[in-house]
Each structure stands twice: as C-alpha cells, then as structure tokens.
Amino acid sequence: MLPPLEDTLTVNVPLLDLVAQYRAIKDEVLPALQAVIESQQFVMGPPVGQLEAAVAGLSHAAHGIACASGTDALLLPLRALQLEPGDEVITSPFTFFATAGAIHNAGGVPVFAEIDPDTFNVAPAAVEAVVTPRTRALVPVHLYGQMAELERLTATAGRHGLRIVEDAAQAIGARRRIGGAWRMARARTSVLGATAA
Ligand SMILES: Cc1ncc(COP(=O)(O)O)c(C=O)c1O
C-alpha cells in the first residue's frame, strides 16, 4: 500500500538545469553578450553570420541557418515538407516534447517508434514496422550527443521515399562512422541520402 501523501518525501527536479554548464563557459559567454549589447546590433549582426559559418563548418553542412530556438529549427524544415492532413511523421517517444510538437505544428501526425534500450535512440526495426502509405518523413533524435543509427534509417527512408529531418538539438558536433567515413549530426532534410535543404 502507498504511504499517505503527507509522509511522502517530495523532491523538486528541475526540467532543465544548465547552471553548471554555464559556469564552465561563463568567461566566454559574458564578453560576447556584452559586445552585442555595446554594438546595439541585436538582429542579424555579425555574430549571427559567424555562428552560422562556424556551425556549418563543424557539421560539414553547406549552410548553417540560425533560428530563435531548437523548436524553430525543427519546425522550419518540417514546414518545408508541406505536409497534408493525415500525413504521418515517425519519431522517437523518448525526446524533448518539442520534437513531436513541431511535427504537429507543421501539420503532421507524430507516430512513435520504440527506442533501443542500449542507446535510448529510436530503433530502426521499430521505425520500419510503423511505416504506412501515409508516412512522409522520419525525425530521428540524436539524444545525449549520441547519433541515431542513420545508416539503417536512411535505408528505410530510401525504400519508402521518405524525408529525414534530424533533431540534432542535443548533438551539434556529434558524429558517427558510416561506410568508413565520419558523418556529422546536422538538422537537415534529406531523401535517399541527398541533401535537399
Ligand atoms: C531533442 C531536443 N529537440 C528539440 C529541443 C528544442 O530546443 P529549444 O528548447 O531550443 O526550442 C530540445 C531542447 O532541449 C531538445 O532537447
């Protein structure tokens, strides 16, 4: 039997606690923020282009496009897919809520595929099992800096003509060896392995 509520120890666990991480980079962050404030160029100033070039270089991507948030960075490529009502997008149930939220806000129906208990990333066999004629895209999430099995997901996408939008919010700079070459995590849309946006 459960103990009465008043005897239960309550521990508040914050949704996100980045204080320790911030402390480690504080000496770089503060002068950079101060320089922006001094310049009074808050929108599309030089640091935006510098960030875009740096992230594109790090991710081996043709372009880096700065967005207001990771949620927007998911929403924009998903909107570019021009999903129709009833179109399904397969993703992981074990992720930040923005992943499924962005699929919904782009007009799609999120369909969850089971995760691999060893990596916590979406299991490719489970993805293949939930593909239907309404499936338009896959959104693998590279969780905790560890990339999902893109090689198998790309094969599934190729077989069914699906787009892939990677949720790399937790994995900028992460990489995975695929076919003898390093493949960087990057939020992009692709079909049959070719970069489309
Ligand atoms: C996997 C994942 N996707 C998307 C997001 C959304 O990013 P943002 O909070 O910047 O909108 C997060 C944020 O933690 C995330 O962890």
Q: Which descriptors apply to this entry?
A:
single chain, 197 residues, alpha/beta, Aspartate Aminotransferase, domain 2, six-stranded mixed β-sheet, two-stranded antiparallel ribbon, 8 strands, 36% helix, globular, disordered C terminus, binds pyridoxal-5'-phosphate
Summarize the structure.
With 197 residues, the chain is of the alpha/beta class.
SSE diagram, text form:
Layout: H1 19-39, H2 46-58, H3 70-80, E1 88-91, H4 98-105, E2 109-112, H5 124-129, E3 135-139, H6 150-160, E4 163-165, E5 175-178, E6 181-184, E7 189-191, E8 194-195
Question: What can you see in these coordinates?
Answer:
The chain has 197 residues and is of the alpha/beta class. The protein has two domains: 19-58, no CATH class; 70-195, Type I PLP-dependent aspartate aminotransferase-like (Major domain) (Aspartate Aminotransferase, domain 2, 3-Layer(aba) Sandwich). Helices cover 36% and strands 15% of the residues. A six-stranded mixed beta sheet has the order 2-1-3-4-7-8. Strand 7 and strand 8 (194-195) form a beta hairpin. Helix 3 (70-80) runs parallel beside helix 4. Bound molecules: pyridoxal-5'-phosphate (PLP). Pyridoxal-5'-phosphate (PLP) binds next to helix 3 and helix 4. Pyridoxal-5'-phosphate binds next to helix 3 and helix 4.
- What ligands can be seen in this structure? pyridoxal-5'-phosphate
Shape annotation? globular
Structural class: alpha/beta
Kindly report the average pLDDT value.
91
Measured on Cα atoms, how large is the radius of gyration? 19 Å
**N-to-C series of helices and strands:** HHHEHEHEHEEEEE
Name the helicity range: 25-40%
What's the total count of β strands?
Answer: 8
* Count of individual domains: 2
- Low confidence ranges: 189-197
Sketch the major β-sheet: 6 strands, mixed
- Percentage of residues in strands: 5-15%
**CATH homologous superfamily placement of the largest domain:** Type I PLP-dependent aspartate aminotransferase-like (Major domain)
CATH topology (fold) name of the largest domain: Aspartate Aminotransferase, domain 2
CATH class of the largest domain: Alpha Beta
Distance between the termini: 55 Å
Number of helices: 6
CATH architecture of the largest domain: 3-Layer(aba) Sandwich
- Which strand order does the major sheet show? 2-1-3-4-7-8
